């Protein structure tokens, strides 16, 4: 069992798929970097390759070629992507690069001129073309079978469900719209069909993701529903699995989701992942973000009134250009009042192509670090108090892993990798990943819980 907080990067997955290749079957490896949205892209690429007769290699040595799905959001992420490409070249030698950093092919080939091909984000066909050129397919339709849920880089009992690509926001620190384009929502029928297949294949939790989940469907012309995310959430909640919403902007219509979350008879979890980013109105304006932090506190109060068990997760940026000590203190005061359940924080860094780079008064690195430390200290104290209040409560948890030491589980308040865990270290021998079990909470730390199974 492993304790939190994690390294705050649910962003590196390798295809560790036990897949015995038939004689002569070409094998492809995958390294996936970036956010869960990129992880879904990796799964789609591998599923397409699997359908064409390729086997998936769990290591470099057994692969005829390796795909590296890169992240290009921050300069630090770009360097990490270059390191991953370099490792794949050293270990295998035949590397195809795709993903967000692929939007800058000269940056990649300048560092690694021997890569076989570079394609941009969600360019599935170009990736397949590159694989075909490097490793020609050799399918056998009588032997090669595609798993019911496709190829997955997550455990069998949960899966990310991407409902849209791109973003219509113009935040000054972000280049996602430049890399992935404007909002493009998937048809609701396609999303539901995929969700149904996942649940039929044994998935117990659907993690709904996009760049702006609450804006889902608002790019459709002539749509009947003003806010299609409401109907989609309602339909997903009936499938018999947990449904967790990520990356939800606090538009007014989000309040219409809260009664559905408060209803324990459906699967929409009382959990909202909302990227607030900051609380001071002047900082938010410099970010080109909505600047109504006080009204946001009113919304939070209304959500908690209608759904007392709701869990609120968010991420923030400290050290944004021009951020003064007084503005940072406003953020700390806001956090005290908001009492968010789950909080992540990043120190601002320039991103090539972002408009925030040109802003005046960049904050020194030492000041950024100091503010990050102070922010996380406050966030940790809030988390510790909130978890302590759960001691003695009876909760339903989902089992993620079981080993000789115990079972690692998650409550409705915990998304995989980024939130806390609940550990069971007695009487866990009969549990398996994907089981739902009722526990009584006996102990709490800053980020995690411990409990015992209720008879």
TrEMBL record:
Enzyme class: transferase
Known catalytic reactions: L-aspartate(89)-[ribosomal protein uS12]-hydrogen + (sulfur carrier)-SH + AH2 + 2 S-adenosyl-L-methionine = 3-methylsulfanyl-L-aspartate(89)-[ribosomal protein uS12]-hydrogen + (sulfur carrier)-H + 5'-deoxyadenosine + L-methionine + A + S-adenosyl-L-homocysteine + 2 H(+)
Cofactor(s) demanded: [4Fe-4S] cluster
Entry EC number(s): 2.8.4.4
Intracellular or extracellular location(s): Cytoplasm
Classification via InterPro entries: Elp3/MiaA/NifB-like_rSAM, Methylthiotransferase, Methylthiotransferase_N, Methylthiotransferase_N_sf, NA-bd_OB-fold, Ribosomal_uS12_MeSTrfase_RimO, rSAM, rSAM_horseshoe
A GO CC term assigned to this protein in UniProt: ribosome
Pfam families assigned: Radical_SAM, TRAM_2, UPF0004
Span of domain MTTase N-terminal: 26-136
Domain annotation TRAM: ranges: 388-455
Family: Belongs to the methylthiotransferase family. RimO subfamily.
UniProt-listed HAMAP family: MTTase_RimO
The protein's name in its UniProt record: Ribosomal protein uS12 methylthiotransferase RimO
Organism in which the protein naturally occurs: Roseicyclus mahoneyensis
């Amino acid at each position: 069992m492993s304790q939190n907080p994690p390294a705050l990067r649910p962003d590196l997955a390798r295809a560790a798929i036990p897949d015995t290749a038939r004689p002569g079957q070409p094998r492809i490896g995958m390294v996936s970097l970036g956010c869960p949205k990129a992880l879904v892209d990796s799964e789609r690429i591998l599923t397409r390759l699997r359908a064409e007769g390729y086997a998936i290699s769990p290591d470099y040595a057994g692969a005829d070629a390796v795909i590296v799905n890169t992240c290009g959001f921050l300069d630090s992420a770009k360097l990490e992507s270059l390191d991953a490409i370099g490792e794949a070249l050293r270990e295998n030698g035949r590397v195809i690069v795709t993903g967000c950093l692929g939007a800058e092919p000269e940056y990649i080939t300048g560092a690694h001129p021997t890569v076989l091909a570079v394609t941009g984000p969600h360019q599935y066909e170009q990736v397949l073309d590159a694989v075909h050129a490097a490793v020609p397919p050799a399918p056998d339709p009588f032997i090669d079978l595609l798993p019911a849920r496709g190829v997955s880089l997550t455990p069998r009992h949960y899966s990310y469900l991407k409902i849209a690509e791109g973003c219509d926001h113009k935040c000054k620190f972000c280049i996602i719209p430049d890399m992935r384009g404007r909002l493009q929502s998937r048809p609701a029928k396609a999303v539901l069909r995929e969700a149904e297949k996942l649940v039929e294949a044994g998935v117990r939790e659907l993690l709904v993701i996009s760049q702006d989940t609450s804006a889902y469907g608002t790019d459709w012309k002539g749509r009947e529903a003003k806010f299609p995310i409401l109907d989609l959430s309602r339909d997903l909640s009936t499938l018999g699995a947990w449904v967790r919403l990520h990356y939800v902007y606090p538009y007014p219509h989000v309040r219409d989701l809260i009664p559905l979350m408060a209803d324990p008879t459906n699967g929409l979890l009382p959990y909202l992942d909302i990227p607030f980013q900051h609380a001071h109105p002047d900082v938010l304006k410099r970010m080109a973000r909505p600047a109504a932090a006080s009204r946001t506190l009113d919304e939070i109060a209304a959500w908690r009134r209608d759904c007392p068990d709701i869990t609120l997760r968010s991420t923030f940026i400290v050290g944004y250009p021009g951020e003064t000590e007084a503005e940072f203190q406003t953020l700390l005061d806001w956090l005290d009042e908001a009492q968010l359940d789950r909080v992540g924080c990043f120190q601002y860094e320039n991103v090539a192509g972002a408009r925030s780079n040109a802003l005046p008064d960049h904050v020194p690195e030492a000041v950024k670090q100091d503010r990050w430390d102070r922010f996380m200290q406050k966030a940790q104290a809030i988390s510790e108090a909130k978890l302590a209040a759960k001691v003695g409560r009876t909760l339903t948890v989902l089992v993620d892993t079981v080993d000789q030491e115990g079972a690692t589980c998650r409550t409705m308040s915990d998304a995989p990798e980024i939130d806390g865990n609940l550990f069971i270290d007695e009487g866990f021998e009969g549990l398996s990943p994907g089981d739902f079990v009722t526990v009584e909470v006996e102990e709490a730390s800053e980020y995690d819980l411990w409990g015992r199974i209720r008879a």
